[in-house]
Amino acid sequence: MVERLDATFHALSDPTRRGMLASLARGEKSVGELAQPYAMSFAGASKHVKVLESAGLVARRKAGRTQLCTLRPEPLAEADAWLRQWASFWNTRLDNLEALLANDGEKDA
Question: How much of the chain is helix, strand and coil, in % rounded to 5?
C-alpha cells in the first residue's frame, strides 16, 4: 500500500501528468491525443504515460498501431483516503485552537 501511495503521489507531482489524468477522466484517449495540448512528442508523452501506468493510474492497450489509455481511479481513491486522515487531524487541531482563543477572549473581557 505504501509503495503504491508513493507511486501515486510521484505520478501526481507533475503538472503534465495531472493534465493527462484530467483528460482521461473525460474518456479513453490515445497517447498522441494526450500529447497534443503539451506540444510534445509521442515519445515524451509515452514516458509520462509510463509513469502513470506504473502507478496504476492508467491502463494502456493497443488497437492496431494506436495505444489507447484509460483512467484507473482506484489509486486516487487510496490517496484521497490517506489525505482525509490528515484533514481530520487538522480540523481537530483548528477546533482546539478556536476554543483556546475563545477562552482567552473571555478572560480579557
Answer: 70, 15, 15
33-53 pLDDT, tens digit per residue, is 999 999 899 999 999 999 999
Q: Identify the H or E element spanning 69.
A: strand 66-71
**Burial zone of 61 (CB within 10 Å; 0-12 exposed, 13-18 middle, 19+ buried):** exposed
Question: pLDDT band at 89, cuts 50/70/90?
Answer: confident
DSSP letter at 36? G
pLDDT score for 19: 97
CA-wise closest residue to 38 among 62, 63, 64, 14: 14
Residue showing cell 476554543: 99
Name the DSSP letter for residue 70.
E
Q: Which of 43, 36, 76, 44 is nearest to 58 (CA)?
A: 76
| Residue 45 neighbours by CB distance under 10 Å | 22
Minimal CA–CA distance to 47: which of 23, 75, 67? 67
Residue with the three cell numbers 494526450: 34
